[in-house]
Every structure is written in structure tokens, then in C-alpha cells.
Amino acid sequence: MGQSQFHHTLRTDLIKDILIWSGSFFLALVVAFVLTLDGLVNYMVAEMAGHRMHYQLAEFSKHLSQGDTTSITEESEALVQDESISGILLVDASGLLVQVSLKDGEPPRVSLTRNMSVEEMRSEVALEDDLVLFEERIPGHTGSLVLILDKGPILKAIYTSTGWTAALLIFFIILSIVVLHFSLRRHLIKPVDEVRHLMDDDLKREEKEELISHLPDEVAALAISYEASNEAHLLMERQFNQAQKMEAIGTLVGGIAHDFNNTLAGIVGNLYLAKQGATTLPDVVEKLDRIEVLSLRSSETVKNLLAFAHKTHLETAPVALGSFIKEAIKLNRVSVPESVNLTYHVSDEDLTVNGDVTQLHQVLLNLINNAFHATEGMAEQNISVSVERFNADEQFLQKHAVTSEHFARITVSDNGRGIAADVIEHIFEPFFTTKEVGKGTGLGLAMVYGSIKSQHGIIEVESEPGCGATFKVFLPLIENEEGVEFTGSDEAVQGQGESILLADDEEGLLVATCEVLESLGYRVFGAADGQQAVSLYREKREEIDLVILDVVMPRLGGIMAAQQIREIDPAARVVFVTGYDEKSFSGGGEELHHPVIHKPYAIEELSLLIRQQLDQA
User: Fold this and answer.
1) Which residue of 264, 266, 335, 512 could cross-link 600, Cys pair, CB 3.0 to 4.6 Å?
2) Cβ 76 vs Cβ 103: under 8 Å
3) How far, CA to CA in Å, does 347 sit from each of 12, 473, 485, 531, 571?
């Protein structure tokens, strides 16, 4: 049911209830008035009869004692001239009628004759609704006096005397209903109208708060409850939309990751070979090094997108932030123009955190890249990076609800355009960007936020338009742990003439990797898929010292090929290579316990892993 329909139904129900209640109240008052009036008439008739009987009994008793029947007759005839008295009767000791005095000038309403009993008279009188019979014994005598009264004149007198009162009563009843209607409208219908207006999504928060402040307490409580539930619903809707976006990112990146990483691996291999052939040209080697760094960084972007979409897992380890930041700045310097003044300061303290090196590097890259774009157009572009210890105070702990009190704080500041207050609360949302079309995807800061949160960190931003921006990343410190030191790339480890079986379905990558391994001093047997690799191993098992298998290949994948090779030789050494994350394939069982290296890999990394496997006893 829509809001307007709900409001119309509620309003109609309220008005209907008011009309029913008012009508019922009015009807009840009318019934009560009629019943009260009837009782009033009966009471007045009884009172009048009592007064008449008391007086006439005394008079008739005196006349009877004197034997003066004439006076009795005369008084009776005079009394019946009263509109309210229909008859005065005398009854003897035996209960029989002996004297009748009825109103003159009109047909008698009851037929009364001498020698009728009192009970017979009662029966006659009962036939007339307006007549009432009263009987009482005459003091000092055996006879009784019977008085027949007519309620009609009495009722008329009451109506005459109370007519204005009744009219006034009805007026006040109607007035009370009108007042009740407007009162209920003010306290019920009007608040309902305001609540309906409050449900308008176009209203700003300040306008809604102003409306609520004028509502009655009970209605205001209902409105506040509605607002809270509505905000919760909108939050769930936003979270659902975010989840859909994350799923879309994960599906997209997961689909291209394998081919993309295979291509990058081929590029890195050929770059290594090119550098080996250009040792006498240092300028060329330097440029090739830059290309290699950018290629590996591209693969890190894919990994971070997968992690951001929860399609991969973190590989955390103790990281010495000092050496990490220094090395990361050197690598990031390649992507920042020389006109930008990029400086850094690293604390002398030992700051070790538990983090994923790849994601931490991507965080720093995105923050520096974001700062660079923010400073574009400035006469002087300044970006500073610092790392220092931060001991959390009570306010910080309450704000972020964290248990750790000691953090490493990475600060990235710039002197750029700054961020407006209405924008700053959205900057970490996926696909939110203020950049022109083609200059931003809206994923950079969202990935930073997701990466820091996944590593139990905190990120804050301080900025004002025209005053630059400062991003602060807080990572929990781990005490008494020795972090991995970063000293740059080592030289590739040379082989000692060993034989390696290499299987990969990407022909360009297979050729490049074979040439790289041969340049390192290895003999290499190449295979285009798993079946060919198993056949080559079966044929040359005595010559082959190590098997390197791509996980995903046509005809026979690397995991199944490794199982068949281990059936031939249980002691065979195997290394897996993949463009996917381990979560993207399953079913290998024990085979996944072999070392896995991810494409694209640095040649130094691959050569070190090969040497480690060959040197195992």
C-alpha cells in the first residue's frame, strides 16, 4: 500500500470513527433525556396526587364526621374542573363505588358505575395510557378516596416549562460534537496529515525534524520510529546495491584476471630477456625496469580488485613499515611527474604491522595518485608521506571501537583543491568520483577503504575546500615481531644445469619463460598442455629435476597432470603457476600443498623459488 493510499485510509477511518462515536453519543443523550422526562412526569403525577389526597382526605373526613355529604359532592364537582383531575370517587367499606364525580363537558374516558369494585376501576383506568388511579382510606372512616389523574396536562406543563431547557441541551450537545470534531481533527487527523507529509522522501532532514517537533508526543514517537525504520531500510537497500556492485566487479575481474595475468607474465619475461641483451645500454635498461615495475603494478591492481570484491584472500605477514614505505616511494616515483614534489619521512622507531604487502603497496599507490590529481593545476604540487607511531587516546578508542591502543600511522597529505563537506562522506563509496569522464573510475579510494578494513585498520580524512587534504591510515602494531625488510629486487638466482619441465597453454608465455630459464642456466622441456607434460615426464623422468605446471590448461589441467606425474614418480618436485587465486580452483587435494606462484611474477621471484625447490633434499 502506497503512502498516499495509507494516509487516505487512515484519515477515512478516523472520520468514520468520529461520526459513529458522535452519533452514538447524541443518540444515547436523547434516549437518556426521554427516559428521564418520562420518569419526571411519573414523579410529578405522584407528587400532585399525594398533595391532593392529603388535603381532600382531611376535608372529606371532616365532612363525613358531620354527615355533610352535600359539601363532599360540591367539592368533588369543583375539583374535577382541574385539567389534571379526571375523577374523584368514594368507595365504601366493602370496596364498592358509592359516589362518582367526573369531568364535565366531554365524554367520559372511562365507564364507571356505582357498585364497581376498586379492582374493576383499575382495569378500566389501565386501558387509558394517560390516566393514573390513586386510592387511600379516609382517616376515621371505613371508606376510601379514589383519585384519577390525567398525565396529559401535566406532561404539557412540563414540556412548556422545560422546552427551552431541552432546546438549550440539544444546542450544547451539538456544540460539544462540533468541538469534539475539531479537537479530534487537531489532535488526530492533522497529525496524520503531518506524518504523511513527513513520509515525503523529498523533505530534508532539517525539515523533518522541524515537523516532528510540532507533533504530539505519541505521534512524534511514531514518526521518529518510522524515520528510524525507514533509514534502516534505506541503509539495507544501499548495502544490497553495494553488494551487487561488488559481485559485478568480482565477476568482471575474475573473468579477465587469467588472460590479463598471462599476458603480463609474457611481458615481464620478455622484458627480462631484453634487459639481458641491453646490459651495455644503461638508459635502455632503466626504461625497461620502469616498464617492468608498471607491469607488476598492473597485476597488483587486479589482485586488489579481487580482494575488494572478496574474490581472494589476504596473505598477511609481519611487515616493517619503515623499509616498506621507502621502497614503495621509490617504485611510485616512476608514476609521478618530476614536477611534483614528493617527500617522505619515516620514523626511526621499529614499526611492524601484520599486513598484506601487495595491498599495502596498492593503498599507498592509490593515495599518492589521488593526491597527484588533487594538486593538478596548482602552481606548486606538494605531496608528503610520513610514517610514525600513534598511541590512541580515549576519544579515538571510543570513536572507532578498537581494542588495540598502539598503531602505525601512515599520513599522505597534499596542497590540492581540498574536498567539500558534502562530498567527503561519499569518497569511499564504490564508483563515486568527482573527476571528469575518462579520468576516474570511482574505485581507487573504495579499494583503499576495503583493503585497510580487511587488515583491521582505520582510515580518516581531513580536508577543506582550498586547503588540501590529509589521509591518515592507522594499522595495529605487533610488538616483538621482526618484520620483513624491503631492500629492492635481488639479482635472479642462476641455475646449475638442471632440467625443468615447463607446461603452459599460452604459447607466447611458454616461449618467453623457456628462454628466461635457459638464460639462467637450465635445460628446459616445453609442453603445451597437461597431457603433453605427462608424456614428456614419462619419457624423460630420469633427466627432469623439477616440473612447473600452469594450473588451468586445455585437455588436462595442471593439478590432474601433477597427480599422474606423482603416480609415475612419487618424489617428483612440482611447482604450480596460475593467473587465478587459489580460491578460483579446487579439487586438487594434496596437490595444492605444492608451492604456487602467481602470474605475473618477477623473474627474481621465480628463480628463487626454483632454486629453493631444487636444493631440497
Assistant:
1) 264
2) no
3) 72, 15, 15, 55, 49
CB distance 364 to 407 below 8 Å: no
C-alpha cell at 544: 627432469
Task: Domains for the chain: give ranges and CATH numbers.
Answer: 3-157 (3.30.450), 250-304+491-617 (3.40.50.2300), 314-476 (3.30.565.10)
Place of cell 642462476: 494
Q: Given strand 406-414, what is the order of strands in its sheet?
A: 341-346, 382-391, 406-414, 469-476, 458-463
Amino acid type, 126: A
Picking from 136, 92, 133, 89, the residue whose alpha carbon sits closest to that of residue 113 is 89
**Cell numbers linked to 101:** 364525580
Give this prediction's pTM: 0.46
Q: Are 83 and 153 in contact (CB under 8 A)?
A: yes
pLDDT average per 10 residues of sequence, the chain (617 residues): 51 62 66 67 76 78 76 76 74 70 61 73 79 83 78 72 63 68 59 56 57 54 60 69 66 68 80 79 81 74 62 72 84 77 88 85 86 88 92 86 87 91 79 57 73 87 90 87 53 88 91 91 93 93 93 89 92 87 51 76 87 81
Positive or negative: CA dihedral 268, 274, 279, 282? negative
pLDDT of residue 6: 47
For 67, 325, 328, the CA distances from 409, given in Å and listed in that order, are 132, 12, 16
